[in-house]
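A further point concerns the way the authors explain their paired sequence and structure data. Each protein is reduced to its one-letter sequence and a matching series of backbone shape codes. An entry of this sort, consisting of the sequence and the corresponding backbone structure tokens, reads as follows:
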Amino acid sequence: MADWTTEQVGQWLKSNGFEQFAKTFKGKRIDGIALFNLNDDEIVQLISCMDGDKKKNKTNIKKFKEKLNEWKMDHKENLSRRRNAQRSSASSVLSTVITTDTDETLTIDKSADVNYTKSIAISNGNNGVYAKFFNNRFFRTHLQQYLSQKYDIKCSVKLERQQSILELVGMKHPVKVACHDIKVLFESLQTKIYNSQTTDQKSKRFDYQYLAYDFLVVVIYWSTHIFSDSAIDVIQNIMNNERIFTAWNKSEMFSGYYEVMYFNHESFGATDEVITRILNREIAYVENIRMPNEKTKAFINEIENFVSTVRHPELNIIHCKYPFQMEIKISLFGRKSQVKKIKKQIDVLVNKYTLKPFIVRMTSDQHDYLVDNCLQQLKDIENMYKNDNVQIRIRQKEFYAPQYLIEEIKKHIYELICQTAICTIQTIESLTALSDDDNVKLNEIAKKYCCSIERIESNVETEIHRIPKALTNTSSTPSLIIQKSNKFCSSLSVRKISVSNGSIEIYVPDYSTQLSKDVTIISTNAGLQQEHVEPDSENGLLQMPSGRKIILCRLPNRSGTDSEAREKFKKTIRKFLSRVTQMIINNCSDAERIAFSTCDWEDLCNEPQLIGELLLEMKQVIETGKQRWRFLFIFNHEQKLLCNKFLQVMIGLQSDEDGFAQFTCSILKTHVILTTVKGNDLAPCENEINCYIRNKICGSETLKNISNLHNWNQHMINIFYKYCLEKFVLPSLNLTTFELQLVGPPENIQQAKEKYKLISEILKLKSLAGIPFSVGTKSPVQEKQQSNKIDKNSHNIAFSYCLEDEVVCQHLTMTLIDEGYKLYYSSSNIGLSQAQIEKSDLLLIYFNENYTKDKHCMANLNYAKSIGKTIIPIAEMKNVLQDTEENFWLNSVKITQLFYDLFDREIEIEFSGDSDLEYDYLLAKLLCHTKPGMTDQIYPQISEVSEVKHVDTNYEQNLFGYTSKKLQEVTNEQRKEKENTYKRQLNKRIENEKISSDEIDILVGNLILVVEDLEEFLQGKNPNHDIYSGNRSIDFNREQNDKYRRANAIALLHCIKRWLNKAPNVIKKNVAPFTPTGDINDALFTSYQTTGRDWLADDDDDDDEQSNNVLSKDYFSAQNSNSGYWFTSEQAQDYFQSWIKTDRRTSIIETKLEENETAWPTISISEMSTEIRGNQDETIDNQWKTPEEIKHIQELDNPNRIWKRAKHVSAAFMKQKLRNIIEFQKLCDSRTNV
């Protein structure tokens, strides 16, 4: 088998299913000996070269090794049998049989040549050609293997100065045959000289752009242009690696030719065609690689460092540098793959240092600024990069620099003419930071201030936040809330122990793959296998192809489970951590995130005590070290049990600083880089963009002095954090300073604030009532059976809903039962009974369009209204399962209209998708009317605003009944400061715009006369005097309307006196009132409070004393008005009618109309003549105008009037105006004729 030729090897490959590799083996000249001596790397190279599929290659390699091992075993067995046969043959020939007296037959061995040794001396020959063969270790190894496998002899080679000595040891006959074979081998040596001008130089010159030849090798060109002895070594190494045994030489250094000697032997032979093919396909020569036209010092140093560091046996870099010059030449000779690789790297360096012109884009103002003010700074930039020959020609708006410096120099120049500011947006990664509309708005803001947004950058950082421990555990919590809280905590991905210089963190399996790690510590072979690292690797730093760093430090296996073994293992852990620490310091000094792979740790750390010892040792390592390290434990999905053990131990080791739990949050940081020309103020643009970011994209709000957190238990805190994170709001609750910080989208922050207030409000309402919580005492089925029984016991709630909403309402029902409420609810389509409604504190309705179509539901509603039962409707504004974004708005409008028609009030509780917040709204409303476990009780209604800041210096509390939310945020100092500023501005305006003293004197004199007349009228001294005199006097019915006249007189008298008190410091214009918040809605206005009187009722029975005080009592005083900023339609109507009562009494109007009657006579337009209509129009219009006004209007409407042309009016404009007047007159005439 060792004598197999390449064809026989190919047949063997085909017989074993590797026919696709036969061509490759033949091209590599793999015969029997070469096949027998293939190592693992060579097998991988041969088998993997045909297919890029890693999985398929792995299978083929494994199968090939199995077949090869079988073939080797067969070969060894055949060789052993052949050796035994040779020995038997030699013994039979060389032995004689001697017969003794005892008739015993003895075999006497005379084979003295069994350990025969023979030495062969082979001189080095001309030019040491033979020595070159024996100096080649590949040739020596192949020769020894050939003699061992074919003749079963050992061969050793001793290299001397003049000759090479071969010592053959074995049986005499095989040794002699081997000596003859060696002689034949060297007699077959042939020589080829590449000096033929017709054949060796026949091909075209090498195209080094594509590294290819045209069929024939130009070896003569190499010999005449490559003046380096290393080229011969390169060719020799390439031939050796191709398993072609040759000896290369060059006749002379500068004018000689290449010559090659090779064997024409079956096992060592090579043909001229094979050598030519290798030279043609595998060797390339690139002469004088392109260099930069202007070579800088930086380039010379870089290229020399590169050349000195590149070392490869199959590559020769010919480097020519001329003394006292910047000229440099580089040529490459060697294996084609290496030449391509190095040439590409050199081209990158050349492109990097090639000087190129670059245009600096700038405005004319920026250019003038640079020329006038920054010439010295530009010169400093040139000096900074003088080794790169940087030249800045600012007058031409360009500079010359290498490619790698262009952006850096551009940045320096722009820093001279531009100033930069960065606005940062921080959002949770799942939320998009900037939308298209936001980008447009930000660019508009920047443009308004003559700035520009240079770029927007983003990066993601993973942060660990803590959930604080509650200050109390006394508050009872419904079981459903506890379940949600526990589920939220179990979903958290990290547990952390805080240490002074770092931390120890444990991550659940689902999150471990997302971690960013500086270095990974592997301690077991299973960990190596998981990271695809060879199991026989040595301890130390392993640099992975992907760039990841791995430190291998094996942890010894644990033996025994007794106390002695446990103590021994503790010492092992200390040594292990000590070695790991030293390796990190030596190899990865800048590492911060250090991950420990826990593969195959189940046996090492199967006891909580050992886990605790490991964590405490790590904590001590971090505390005693100077580095800031984070130790991360990562687990795979098969290690959930081990992960849980670590988590349980971690909980016991955590301190108050770590809080109750921790969670990871990926923060997306978006940086908006603003630029503007120097001299412009960038601060206003930066402030407005930051303001827009806070108000529209991502804001931050802090609630301070929230002392009610004392009563929050841990489940409440967990639920609040869960809600915030679902809304992409990052909460930070400090139970030491009682502050709550919320970061996220502004709309979501408001929802989180509402959640906090509702939790506090619910807790407050429950604590005030002293509710003894009963959590989960009965199952929903038992509660349902009990609640549907009509007995003498009252219930809290009667829940009415239609059959279509049973699934949603059943979930709501169980939640309310879990709160401790007793409910009646519909179990079928028959609805609630009247007795159930009567025995309940209130009726809860799940209202939607289906509810209005259900007759049983409507009957429940109407009956509850008839008996005056408290009704709390829930409006379903959006059906999550059915409504889409397109029909949501239409459905909400429809539900709103139906709600107003049935309940005659605004919607207070609506369900539109935010179930957690909406349920809290509902629960807070229910607690105001009924408490769990308490029925048939009346509760005082509490204001919707739970927190009121009492301010002694203001009277908003008395005025509105509560302080508005914006006013709550204004401190006393801010209020005083703003009020003082308002007074100064008001005094300054009064001083500038007050009415003149002469005009004031006239007004005061006239108003004093009016006051005297009003006082006489109110005292009854002049009852016939009409206080309303003028062009438009109003005819009052004094007998029936006396009290209204008196009320108006009192109001007017108060108004005049108030004005007289302010004179002479008055102005003609109105002044905006003082508002602490800057919002006019927070000014100290009194809201209207209805009189509660029916304006259509007859008021003859009211006494005069009451009528006198209708407006005078509270006219200019603060009223206990209704909350809100706007009048309702009823209030506006009542206010309007209170004033029109003075014009005409409604009691004298006949409001009842008989059938076919009209309120006043009417006549058709067609029945009126033109003259009548004209007179009537004039009558209606002229009664409000003076004769002078009527005459002036007629003159303006005369189309024949002579127009005076104003200086600023064009002739075309006047003509067009006349045409319009004439056309309008014709239109009026035509309509009149019709």
Remarks:
- The mean pLDDT is 75.
- Residues 711-769 form one domain.
